[in-house]
Amino acid sequence: MTAGEKKEYWRWQETCWIDESKNWRDAKIITAGIDVGSVSSQAVICVDGELYGYNSMRTGNNSPDSARNAINGVLEKSGMKLEDITYVIGTGYGRVNVPFAHKAITEIACHARGANYMGGNTVRTILDMGGQDCKAIHCDDKGKVTNFLMNDKCAAGTGRGMEVIADLMQIPIAELGPRSFDVDEEPEAVSSTCVVFAKSEALGLLKAGYSKNKVIAAYCQAMAERVVSLIERIGVENDFFITGGIAKNPGVVKRIEKLLGTKAVETKLDSQIAGALGAALFGYTLMQKQGASAKAA
Amino acid sequence: MIANYGYKDGSGEYYISIDTDKCTSCSAGRACLTACPKGMFETITDDYDDEVAAVKQAFRRSLAFDCSDCKPAGGYTSLPCSTACTPGAIKHSW
Ligand code: SF4
Ligand code: SF4
Question: What contacts A165, CB < 8 A, 6 or more positions away?
Fold first, then answer.
């Protein structure tokens, strides 16, 4: 880092991955799901209803470019062309602005379907902690939504709030969770439920002599309490699964588990791809029904 | 599916819940659309291709204010929306 260059502590790791053991050229149906969220965008490709590859990156200035950049990453890595994809479904906040999508489906339905694939068909409750909103979803054994609740009135308790705290503390976002446990005593949660007020409250705590770790712990606890109060309205039925970027933050996840008295199902897959994965799986089911005649627009 | 539209804030929980399974075979002739004086309901085709009622996006963050005329000082006995919806799909949390 050169002098005067500002370090971006909030920046989380962008990932592009393909399953080298699969050969997409042998596939009958290739589908893609594009999740353009307010903070991150993901593209997932499924071959014959199985996850083949994905790209997860930050959402840019506009939805169409973010969608193109996300899919181009997986296409380049796999040697695939957009024309090779049979059907594309857009989801997320920018879902209607995915220029090459055949259909748009809400992220609520897609996250449930993705969680059903990632966590197994025993998953019944999903907490999706996105960049700017938070959703509690119940689903059946096929991943079909039976009940949902969304909080989009305020960004507190979401990924964007965590980014703000990372920058404020000047600690890389991936380190926030582990550092939140490095305290002698668990502090009271930050009392504000608003990102803007939480920021000034966190600053106040630093000035009052709290260590950075203690402030982070207080913020993680506040975030956990906030989402738990949301999810309690529809209740938790096991198995419980968390999707979205915050699922990678153990500081929040472990506190949510403690408050709910239940453990979240673990997955080796990236929790951030759940929506795009669900969209790609929706595409596969649709193509099976229609006899796989469409090609990418 | 139970779809909960609304929010929770410092003053309380404001959710309108619609049991959309009842909407797919609505026996009330989509009465919710005309019953609400604010025109808060619309029909949408949901992600599973069923035609169901939903609360319009514009009202989802301000239900406490939008519904206040129907709930004067908490003394209401019935609400136009839930009265018109004879299948009993609409519930309010407050
Ligand atoms: S809310 Fe009630 S009246 Fe409206 S479509 Fe559904 S069942 Fe019919
Ligand atoms: S309470 Fe009144 S304003 Fe609110 S949804 Fe029902 S009919 Fe509409």
Answer: A176, A198, A199, A202, A216, A219
DSSP code at position A264:
B
Integer-rounded Cα radius of gyration of chain A: 19
In chain B, which stretches have pLDDT less than 50?
A: none
Would you say the C-alpha torsion A170, A241, A68, A76 has a positive or negative sign?
Answer: positive
| Per-residue model confidence as pLDDT tens digits over B12-27 | 889 999 999 999 999 9
- B47/A148 touch (CB, cutoff 8 Å), yes or no: no
Residue nearest to atom 2 of ligand 1 (CA): B85
Integer Cα distance of A64 and A70 in angstroms: 10
Residue B92: CB within 6 Å of ligand 1?
Answer: no
DSSP letter, residue A158: S
Mean pLDDT (whole number) for A46-56: 97
| The pLDDT of residue B66 | 94
Give me the total of CB pairs closer than 8 Å, taking one residue from chain A and one from chain B. Answer: 38
For residue B6, report the distance from its CA to the centre of ligand 2, in Å.
Answer: 13
For residue B70, the CA-to-ligand 2 centroid distance in Å is 6
CA distances A89 to A45, A94, A102, A155, B54, Å, are 11, 12, 6, 26, 22
Q: In this structure, are residues A283 and A32 in contact, taking their beta carbons and an 8 Å threshold?
A: yes
pLDDT more than 70, % of chain A: 91
Q: Strands A145-151 and B2-9: what pairing?
A: parallel
C-alpha B53, offset from chain centre: 8
Nearest ligand, CA of residue B67? 2
DSSP structure class, residue A209? T
- pTM attached to this predicted model: 0.90
